[in-house]
Amino acid sequence: MNDTEIHSLIGEAVAFAEPRLKGASLKPEDTIAELGINSIAVLEIVGYLEDKLGVRFPDDELAQLNTIGGLSDLIRGHDVAAQPAQKS
Amino acid sequence: MSTQEDIAVSYDVSNEFFALWLDRRMNYSCALFEGTDDLEQAQVNKLRYFHDGARVDPGKRVLDVGCGWGANIEFLARDMGVADLTGITLSKAQFAAIEAKQIPGVKVECVSYKDYQPERPFDAAISIGMFEHIATPEEARAGKHIAIYRDYFRRVWSWTTPGSWFGLQSVIGDRVPRNPTDLREIAHATYTIFPGAITPRLEAIIASTNPYWEILEVKTRREHYEKTAAEWLRRLRSHETEIRERWGDRYEEYERYLAACVMAFAKGYQSLVQMLLRRVD
Ligand SMILES: C[S@@+](CC[C@H](N)C(=O)[O-])C[C@H]1O[C@@H](n2cnc3c(N)ncnc32)[C@H](O)[C@@H]1O
């Protein structure tokens, strides 16, 4: 995926978990806390990305997810290497 | 770290309330269901596991960090003949309950591990279900937890003699839930029942023992905690009328929390670790 695709997928995921942020311009340095996204919504975002990409991110990397850029890194880091998604 | 006010929320509800649904020794931690389905026996199995694992014998001086209502120190004193035991807890209600028992050879202090200074070093240490209180969710999110855990291991190291063993039990976070309903139930338990606490991930504990403790044994016991929590929930429900009469909404709160525990262990969101560590001398 290129940066534009990643960016728009993250926008979709954020709008899914937090409808009030639909169409908001998201910058890599925006912190999840500043955007008012709580710890439950963050994981909903992660779940949405995993479903769309058909991957499962390593659980240990989710604990310290603090920024929008962190979500992009997660996607970039696991685009190829990630395992097929498992349904819970 | 959970503050003393946080700890009061978790443990100072009422000793009688907890006595209605814990085992008769009042272990507030995972039991070991090996060769038994009975919670009472399974709790003794757990205490026995740490007695053996921490190489406790009657002549040793033993410390229990986060001793709860004293189940472990009472077992070691009365059943295993250990004559020099110290328990520390941050809960005033637990401290008072242990003091009132007047167990021979047992000393208890109401103090945080961060302020604790023993008069003399110990030959063995055991800590069951206390590690979860060391770092706060905010500290873990900011990546500060490993340094905080390492500082804890350093302190226990500094309180012990060369050759000491340390038996450690903790709930651990495993799969991170993505499902909003499950997330909400777990968040309720984290923030309402155990404010200031967060279950560590196994790799975080492992990363922080060095350079103070060598890891000799690691066992995960997820199913055992699922069974323990299910039995607590069964007992709580069997006292519903009395609990509602005496403690009102506490009933709902604890029913929700215990049901969330059963779910979290069943789905693998949480697990339990027992570790046997030897002091690096
Ligand atoms: C879940 S209870 C487990 C009690 C007991 N070990 C058992 O298995 O029944 C956690 C214990 O850790 C203690 N604790 C939490 N934070 C502490 C701290 N900073 N210093 C000392 N004890 C602490 C609490 O007071 C409580 O007794």
Q: Can you describe what's shown?
A:
The complex is a heterodimer of chains A (88) and B (281). Chain A is mostly helical. Chain A has helices spanning 3-17, 39-53, 68-78, and strands spanning 55-56, 83-84. Chain A has one domain (3-82): Orthogonal Bundle (Non-ribosomal Peptide Synthetase Peptidyl Carrier Protein, Chain A). In chain A, α1 crosses α3. Chain A starts with a helix and ends with a strand. The radius of gyration of chain B is 18 Å and the shape is globular. Chain B has a seven-stranded mixed β-sheet with strand order 3-2-1-4-5-7-6, with helices on both faces. Chain B has twelve helices and seven strands. In chain B, β2 (84-89), α5 and β3 form a beta-alpha-beta unit. In chain B, 46% of the residues lie in helices and 20% in strands. Chain B is of the alpha/beta class and 281 residues long. Classes of the chains: A mainly alpha (88), B alpha/beta (281). Chain A binds chain B through residues 39-40, 43-44, 46-47, 50, 59-60, 62-64, 66, 88, and chain B through 137, 140-143, 173-180, 183-184, 187, 201, 203, 267. Bound molecules: S-adenosylmethionine. S-adenosylmethionine (SAM) binds next to α1 and β2 of chain B.
Strand count, sense and closure of the main sheet of chain B?
Answer: 7 strands, mixed
Cα radius of gyration of chain A in angstroms? 12 Å
Total separate domains of chain A:
1
Order of helices and strands of chain A: HHEHE
User: What's the domain count of chain B?
Assistant: 1
Q: How far apart are the termini of chain B? A: 28 Å
